[in-house]
């Protein structure tokens, strides 16, 4: 009996020692994690929009919340821009040291992100636990029902691992990732607008300004419409003289061009049109964020159901505004852009303006502007100040007040329902860490892709606004919300998007006319949506209109719109535009 009691006592002592050992190990890990957080805060995550004390408080929450998932490995992916490279190379290391969760954050092409997402949706096999996937696919996600509803998740099973410091009210354009009912399906991780880019130093040079006004009869300035952009493009390509001795079309002995774009038959060509070219031409209806009932893709949607893309079904893909958009694009590409423009892609074109011979760009993806090439060499003057600026995108003659003006890409954290619960939780912790207030300002400094208001309105950016060429003023302006993503009307982005570049590419090469290319595009889009209607979708499935005489729709109010006459060119001084944004002289 005594021997049994002794054995029981030894067993209890062993359990106690084991418990003490576990507790001690946990305490050691917590201490190491907190020390790592302090080191990352002091050495990497400065400046920040919150105090060091608040940064430590936020990181302490992550340490506690991550503990049950310590030792896990998750896989995420994102497209190849500087913001995501920073996440992959820096933030994953910080997250592993602070949270104990290993993240493999693959940086791949945007098309590859969509392809792997689609494969996972179709097969149910988990390729990645979380994607940074453009909110352009929100319409796809809401209709297929394979995306975790983050609103429900944060209120339910994910409540304990949803940070009290997440502060969704601090997000700009959170609606980009929402369904028609306001449920959050995708949380923006970064966003970048398409803005007008121009050589401020040339536009304010008295000798150049005098030449332009003598020829065109109005001042050289930021173009408000395509008519003015066209004049400016022609002027710099064919008429400008930078000095008395320069030939026409030359500045300081260098051949310059009044327009920059890209036109190779490639997947990125489709983005050029669906991302904004159509909307700034005036395709679509008044209404934010995407036009009601016709959006910038030219798709008519009624009560969340797509009903047609072609004019005969009430859409605008092959209407006068769309043909005007495509033909203008082609005309400018060959008349005013550098010779190589028609044979290059998005990835090849982004930094070409930094080479110093482009006067303006209709809309530039601002993620390129974080590249060092735009902050050195030909892009700065003798004092080190930027010679370029960004401004609102000029709009075409079919654009009406109250429409969106341009596009914002919102790469957004997206979790598919095929991901198991524990992996889902760990992935959600990673997404919150990568967008936390502790790191967000530093991530903007690296990549120039803000999502938080606190970052945009930070004291740091107030002090350093001149280093961003108008970008800070844009994001603080009252019109920033007129730059939106593709929105929820597109019912199946992976199936519809390729149709754009394939057909538009044929028009650029001259195989077909602009009207023929868009007629084919509209017909193919209607065919895809008709198949989706027959197949059935869990929600908001297409219900296609029957075709009728196109003139019936053209005579009706709104989009599709009948032919419009040419417009008078309008420009505005850059300083006046800034004053309108900020309410004071700048």
How many domains comprise the coordinates?
2
Oligomer: single chain
Characterize the largest beta sheet: strand count, sense, and whether it forms a barrel: 8 strands, mixed
CATH superfamily of the largest domain: Periplasmic binding protein-like II
* Name of the top-level CATH class of the largest domain: Alpha Beta
Which ranges are low-confidence, i.e. pLDDT below 50, for 5 or more consecutive residues? 6-13
Please provide the count of β strands. Answer: 14
Cα-atom Rg, whole angstroms? Answer: 27 Å
CATH topology of the largest domain: D-Maltodextrin-Binding Protein, domain 2
Helix count? Answer: 21
Shape: globular
Q: Helicity level, as a percent range?
A: 40-55%
Strand-residue fraction?
5-15%
Instruction: Tell me, rounded to a whole number, the average pLDDT.
Output: 94
CATH architecture of the largest domain: 3-Layer(aba) Sandwich
Q: Name the structural class.
A: alpha+beta
Quote the distance from N terminus to C terminus: 91 Å
